[in-house]
Amino acid sequence: MRVLVTGASGLLGGAVARAVADAGHEVTTFQRRPSGVAGVRDVAGSMTDPAAVLAAVAGQEAVVHLAAKVSLAGAPAEFEAVNVEGTRSLLGAMRASGVPRLVFVSSPSVAHGGSSIVGDDAAPASPEHARGDYARTKAAAERLALAAATPELRVVAVRPHLVWGPGDTQLVERIVDRARSGRLPLLDHGAALIDSTYVDNAASGIAAALERVDAVSGGAYVLTNGEPRTVADLMGGICAAAGVPAPRLRVPAAVARAAGSLVERAWAVRPGSDEPPMTRFLAEQLSTAHWFDQRRTQRDLRWSPAVSVDEGLRRLAAWYAAGAPAV
Asked: Which of 260, 249, 263 lies closest to 284, judged by CA?
């Protein structure tokens, strides 16, 4: 197929573009800067530019949509413009061009209201209950995408959870930087059990969804390694791979949630130059269990993860040992 991958300049987007190309498809990427992926055709543009989106979609046979504003903070209007209106624009362009397949890359946060998730499947996306502007707008966008599913436009939503690996700036780099400076806390005792997804597994799972979209249209699937670890274990493994001290600072979860709420209000008035050190959503993620039943995902997508958490940590350690080269 001729496949458009949006957002391929990010860690996961680049890995997905490579996986789809390796499967034998002709890949075009669409994002604001070069993807850096060999063997694909890059098209520069923004999801907030409907004309650019329409031009990128024309002539394609499928779209894998990863482009999004991903942050713990920022202007709500920016999240709305990129995540919701960008998806609306993409759907309109696909209908106008007759493109019949969409894999919408979402997040488990679209159905997370702050309480523990223990062995659940993919619950319906809920903008009304999602925490933070990113989760809220991704939930609204997933609803738009799945509501667009028809016999002429097949749509599947895939929600990879806590994607990490060499070159990751969203999770790994922040853990390592804060651990190095002694600013990485464990909430309570770091005993909350959480799922995560090594980047190669996330990419292969999304590529599998592309192959299966005709059969599973209208569905939403959480995708993980299927190996829950405690927060302390996962953070400690990442820190060991990078050669920095594991977190020793312990903060009560209730205190972190309260502090996160205060930081959010302060950031709204005077944003910092980086991500806020704590938000209520982040405090909830670090102190509540969230792991998922993967049986339906693996059965319907005919997929299983190839890289274990331990093997992923070994690969991460080798990457740091090699001087953290560009991915």
From this structure: 260
Please pick, among 134, 198, 221, 320, the residue that the annotation labels catalytic. Answer: 134
Model pLDDT, residue 77? 92
44 bridge partner residues? 31
Task: Evaluate whether 211 touches 304 at the Cβ level (below 8 Å).
Answer: no
SS3 72: coil
Nearest to 290 by CA among 177, 135, 70, 155: 135
Which residues touch 270 (CB under 8 Å, ≥6 apart)? none
Q: Which of 112, 120, 119 is nearest to 284 (CA)?
A: 112
- CA contacts within 13 A on the Cβ side of 111: 23
Domains in the chain, please, with CATH?
A: 2-161+198-223+292-306 (3.40.50.720)
Cβ atoms within 10 A of the Cβ of 173, count? 15
Q: What is the pLDDT of residues 114-173, one digit of tens each?
A: 678 888 898 898 889 888 888 999 999 999 999 999 999 999 999 999 999 999 988 899
Residue 134 known to be catalytic: yes
The sign of the dihedral angle between the CA atoms of 160, 53, 130, 276 is: positive
Longest distance between any two alpha carbons in the chain, whole Å? 55
Provide φ and ψ at 102, rounded to 5°.
-135, 125
